[in-house]
Amino acid sequence: MEIISKDKLLNLSGKTAIVTGGSLGIGYGISYRLAEAGANVIITSRNIEEVNKAVEELKQKGLKAAGVKTDVSQEEEVKNLVTEAIKLFGGVDILVNNAGMYPMVPLAQLTSEVFDRVIATNLRGVFLTTKYVSEQMIKQGKGGKIINITSIDAIHPSMIGLSHYDASKHGVWGFTKNVALELAKNNIWVNAVAPGGVMTPGVAVGQSQGKPIEIARNPEPPKMEVAMGRMGVPDDIGKAVLFLASEMSSYMTGSQIVVDGGYLLK
Questions:
Q1: 165 to each of 103, 107, 160, 251, how far by Cα in Å?
Q2: For the packed helices 25-36 and 234-245, what is the interaxial angle rounded to 10 degrees?
Q3: Residue 253, Cβ neighbours under 10 Å: how many?
Q4: Residue ranges covered by each domain of the chain
Q5: Is CATH 3.40.50.720 correct for 16-265?
Q6: CA distances (Å), 125 to each of 79, 88, 198, 233, in order?
Q7: DSSP 3-state assignment of 68?
Q8: Chain center to CA of 111
Q9: Which alpha helices (H) appear in 64-214, and where do they start and end?
Q10: Would you give the distance in Å from CA 142 to the centre of its chain?
Q11: Phi–psi pair at 200, nearest 5 degrees
Q12: From residue 101, how far is each of 56, 58, 119, 152, 163 by CA, in Å?
């Protein structure tokens, strides 16, 4: 068996990666690290303005990126995403399912509309992108990497008001393991990253009681009562995803990496 040199282990040159929800927060941290490693990165979001902004920032750094407006809960839009990836870069080698939402709603106030919307994005979206991207990977015959962003809430609940979110993330973790079994014969590795608390624009808005607030792409992390003493930043997740997208994780599938600063140790 060939031993890959250390210089090539994290090299994604010539590969194309789709990052759903890749324009902000954790998604941008992932997009940046994959592009920095040489991948052609396709950023998706329902907000085309944010997509275009993220793509332009990466291009200004000399990195390869493109954007496709996509609602991952809509089947035809996901099919179009794969078609656009083929047009732009000739195929897909890496899929990162990052798009998600987490409205804080206690069970007593939770409506079926909100529950369905969270499941549609967080779980149905992962199913649709995985289905159609893996079909393309199989056609290409080169294998591939699929990385699903779950949450520590896929392992243990973090707070009241996230029953719908926790249901979706438990679902993604179960889906990850089963699909890993099915796609291994095609040399497609399927893994997950479970973030803990990460400082993102969404978290910042919550902390500012809903008021719009600008934060840096990789902000200075505030203190947090975890073993490492701080909240996570998007790059913490980006580095874990890069590991799973690269040859560094060549003998891993159906696994979940917890990146939580030691939160679950509590």
A1: 8, 11, 11, 30
A2: 50
A3: 21
A4: 16-265
A5: yes
A6: 12, 22, 22, 24
A7: strand
A8: 26
A9: 75-89, 112-119, 125-140, 163-183, 201-207
A10: 22
A11: -130, 170
A12: 24, 24, 9, 15, 13
Name the burial class of residue 108, with classes exposed (0-12), middle (13-18) and buried (19+) by CB atoms within 10 angstroms of its CB: exposed
Those residues whose C-beta lies under 8 Å from the C-beta of residue 127, and which sit 6 or more positions away, are 175
d(CA 78, CA 69): 10
- The token duo for 6 is 């250390």
pTM of the model: 0.94
- Cβ-contact 85, 107 below 8 angstroms: no
* Digitized pLDDT (tens) for each residue of the chain, 266 residues in all: 789 999 899 999 999 999 999 999 999 999 999 999 999 999 999 999 999 999 999 999 999 999 999 999 999 999 999 999 999 999 999 999 999 999 999 999 999 999 999 999 999 999 999 999 999 999 999 999 999 999 999 999 999 999 999 999 999 999 999 999 999 999 999 999 999 999 987 665 454 455 555 667 777 888 999 999 999 999 999 999 999 999 999 999 999 999 999 999 98
Which positions are annotated as active-site residues?
Answer: 165
Whether residue 11 contacts residue 216, with contact meaning beta carbons closer than 8 Å, is answered with no
Q: Say which residues have a Cβ less than 8 Å from residue 145's Cβ, sequence separation at least 6.
A: 93, 94, 95, 188, 189, 191, 244, 245, 249
Q: How far apart are CA 260 and CA 258, in angstroms?
A: 6
What's the token pair of residue 231?
């909240």
Phi-psi group of 2: left, alpha or beta (phi > 0 → left; psi -120 to 50 → alpha; rest → beta): beta
